[in-house]
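Dear support,

Our group has been running a series of protein-ligand predictions, and this particular one with pyridoxal-5'-phosphate is the one our PI (initials K.S.) wants archived with full inputs and outputs. We had some confusion internally about which version of the output was final, so please treat the block below as the authoritative record. The input we submitted was:
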Amino acid sequence: MTTNAELKARQEAAVAKGVAAKAIYAARAENAEIWDVEGRRFIDFAAGIAVTNTGHRHPKVMAAVAEQAQAFTHTCVHVSPYESYIRLAEQLNALTPGDFAKKTIFLSAGAEAVENAIKIARYATGRSGVVAFSGAFHGRTMMTMALTGKVMPYKKGFGPFPAEVFHSTFPNDFHGVSLERALEDLDRLFATDVDPGRVAAFIVEPVQGEGGFNVAPFEFLRALREIADKHGILLISDEIQAGMARTGKMFGIEHAGVVPDLVTSAKGLGGGFPISAVTGRAEVMDAAHPGGLGGTYGGNPMSVAAANAVLGVIRDEDLCARAIEIGERITARLTAIAARQGMEPMGDIRGLGAMQAVEFVTDRASRAPDAGLTAAIVAEAEARGLVLLSCGTRGNVVRLLPPLTIPFEVLDEGLDILEASIEAAISKTAAAA
Ligand SMILES: Cc1ncc(COP(=O)(O)O)c(C=O)c1O
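Confirmed final output from the archive:
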């Protein structure tokens, strides 16, 4: 039998160190469970980083991909296009917020969608500036790194980055950054760094993912919409992590009732197959000349088949409603655990729908981040059979991203493990202090 330790050693010898990885080598996965090469079962609270919202190997997604594989696997949409690409575009045009004509382009990775959204926004407005926010994560390519507002591990050592990217403050109640202060900071940016008339777009995550599951206050998103309209700036909602029913709505920004000009999707769209998209106002999407957008693999037929099936599953299984139920179940449990722990290290429990997290702090008075405790909880969970992810600009947030198709008994089992892991990590940390 191959062991995780053997594979870890081979990985260290053969794979670039920059590709950080856990030591749970997958052998197979089904819905919300993963089995490693040693036959150990794990409950999956990561969903491949918010990708398998419809579960691992959803039967309808697998059937659609198998059928497509019998027809053709790649032609390149620029060479010999196919109906399924158009159908998927039609579906996203209808599903994204906004009662106006829309168009879509497909790419492969999330970062590629963000890159294209910026290209499109610049072309359509004839402006160069882009404003992103502190704590944002938009990807690992040059432009998306520039947009990202989290230095470790994403930006350190990789610069210089493309110019014309500006960062403003993302509101964060827990750390005393009010909505008013965030808006003042944007005002300051326009007074001191960049003329708003030079800004093509704001790009914002309705719930920051890697940044720590910080929910954008709805009034903040509404204010951005107003400011954007005032200055002719486009609003891009990066829905790569928060979209595809994860927050209880198809797209996270819908909670605020705000209509963006452009939406980026990826992750959950393909249900485990690589695909991303930019959807937006038809006149904006159509600004660029033919040949200016696209790529060899963008909207690959296998991924498109998966995505068309994923949208059907989200609709048929009412995964938006399920995301709300999952979120309520998680919040109730986290609140009960925090009450037992006296709330001290569990500084903040937050999220939207099935995008929930806990921020761990050394104490609630200082709210100083406790990345050590967070890492210990993730390790304890892994030892007990639960795949967990951390996040946050200070690495002190545990995020819960189970597939939206997870059976409630498996969800509860995972929450039991989480509770035991938090208790074990807290008592070990206290004993070591
Ligand atoms: C909000 C957001 N934007 C962009 C990306 C980049 O996507 P990818 O890793 O597929 O390039 C991510 C990935 O985590 C994300 O969460």
